[in-house]
Amino acid sequence: MTLIKKNDFIEIDFTGYANNQIFDTTNSKDAEKIGLEIKDIKPLTISVGNQMVIKGLDEDLEKKEIGKEYSVDISPEKAFGKRNPSMIKTYGINNFKKQNLNPYTGMVLQLDNMIAKVISVNGGRVTVDFNNPLAGKSINYKYKINKIITEDKEKVNAIQDFFFRKRLEFIIKDKKVIFKDEEIKPFIELINPKLKDMTGLTFEIEIKSENKEIKEKTII
Question: Quick count: other Cβ atoms within 10 Å of Cβ 103?
Fold first, then answer.
């Protein structure tokens, strides 16, 4: 019997509940209940023990069996954190009117580069909550591990989906993952040890040297 361990890449299906209401899912039927686009719903590929899902779920995955259904209750501390009173702020209503916004209770908007929710409008003051909507709540996940991912290409794509939010071209050669996009070079340099620990692969950026290219052309 194979049990899941840290750094395993797995494909997982899950549905998350808060106050018995679904807030996230990879199940198409559950997605319909909360109005998610079905075409975007699919199992998630993650590396266990590497914070690619919330802490409480991440910890629960180890030593579990493939194909078996599980349920885990997670405290706020290991879910989306406790509510932080300092993240509730009050603004003058003119700050919103200058942006042609008419704030109302329950309105969700982007403010100071963060997602926030208006919790009250009183006279000329607007009180806004920057806490995660699930902060302070105990949650439940029902999940099933579909399979262990063994292909290096699938592992790299899972890392790209999580860290880059997009997929870039790469090749795998001699245990090295080689990208050509220099845009991610600082990021790769920063977390390369973590990525190697997760995958057993070294991540690199191939940088073309103009002088080298000229020299090669000269030789030809």
Answer: 19
